[in-house]
Design goal:
Layout: E1 4-7, H1 13-24, E2 28-32, H2 37-48, E3 54-57, H3 64-78, E4 83-86, H4 101-129, E5 132-137, H5 150-170, E6 175-182, H6 188-201, H7 205-216, H8 225-235, E7 247-250
Parallel strand pairs: 1-2, 1-4, 2-3, 4-5, 5-6, 6-7
Helix pairs in contact: 1-8, 3-4, 4-5, 6-7
Bound molecules: nicotinamide-adenine-dinucleotide.
């Protein structure tokens, strides 16, 4: 049977990789995120060519009413949600005393609160079916901190707490809730923070890549989008039914 999958922030990077991996299984997909309309339509068509129905919803993850509408759309179009992947996220790098208040609010909303809003809307459907998978894309920064990333680290630690709480609430309803904690994946999110990190630390961009980014990762290699996607597929599988309320790190040894 085709599974119905919602992936937030799936027009780019990790979310797109996860959408591609589920499409490969022929899943029906709701994709979401920003970008030029023609590029999004190209992605939608590419995913749909794998056999499932693919719809795009433009919900802004800072807007609870739009998030609720997105989940209701998936339920009405597909008849239910089997897998919910909370992936949308942004970054901003600055010292706390210079951190723009609106950036703080935006990061807390997109990287943390949006998962509360999607879950709130999707859980009654999953409970009703006595099955479901919720996968939250946290980060190594859900487990450890780095300077100049106060909002991101706070939001990612918060999503770890939400993951555990939801797992306990849903444990007897056939629904698992887990987080994936990637280290550095070379996506637009990471590429964009290199100049700001360079500025905040007084380094060149090359030094940031070598001495800041890959310094954290014991393997000295970037994690790939495909590796994170494969982990999501595993957490959504039958084999992972007893894995709940926890996280899987894919961080090249960073948090060891
Ligand atoms: P990315 O910038 O490539 O993609 C982010 C996606 O989120 C895009 O589709 C974007 O349009 C969407 N998005 C941003 N703001 C949105 C909003 N307000 N409403 C709806 N969608 C919105 O970034 P990525 O690296 O693929 O990051 C995806 C997730 O993985 C994030 O939660 C990020 O924190 C997490 N993560 C990334 C890394 C990394 O190294 N890249 C490491 C650990 C965790």
């Amino acid at each position: 049977m085709k599974r119905n999958v919602v992936v937030t922030g799936s027009t780019s990077g990790i979310g797109l990789g996860i959408a591609r991996a589920f499409a490969q299984e022929g899943a029906n997909l709701l994709i979401n995120g920003f970008g030029p309309a023609d590029e999004i339509e190209k992605i939608r068509k590419e995913l749909e060519a794998k056999g499932g129905k693919v719809i795009y919803h433009a919900a802004d993850m800072t807007k609870p009413a739009e998030i609720t509408d997105m989940i209701e759309t998936a339920i009405s179009q597909f008849g239910g949600i089997d897998v919910l992947v909370n992936n949308a996220g942004i970054q901003h790098v600055a010292p706390i005393e210079e951190f723009p208040i609106e950036k703080w609010d935006q990061i807390i909303a997109i990287n943390m609160s949006s998962a509360f809003h999607t879950m709130r809307a999707a859980i009654p459907n999953m409970k009703g079916k006595k099955s479901g998978r919720i996968i939250n894309i946290a980060s190594a920064h859900g487990l450890v901190a780095s300077p100049f990333k106060s909002a991101y680290v706070t939001a990612k630690h918060g999503i770890m707490g939400l993951t555990k709480t939801a797992a306990l609430e849903l444990a007897e309803h056939g629904v698992t809730v887990n987080a994936i904690c990637p280290g550095y994946v070379l996506t637009p999110l990471v590429e964009k923070q290199i100049p700001d990190t360079a500025k905040a630390r007084g380094m060149t961009e090359e030094q940031v890549k070598k001495d800041v980014i890959l310094a954290s990762q014991a393997t000295k290699e970037f994690v790939t989008v495909e590796q994170v996607a494969a982990c999501a597929i595993y957490l959504a599988s039958e084999a992972a039914q007893q894995i709940t309320g926890t996280h899987i790190s894919i961080d090249g040894g960073w948090t060891a």
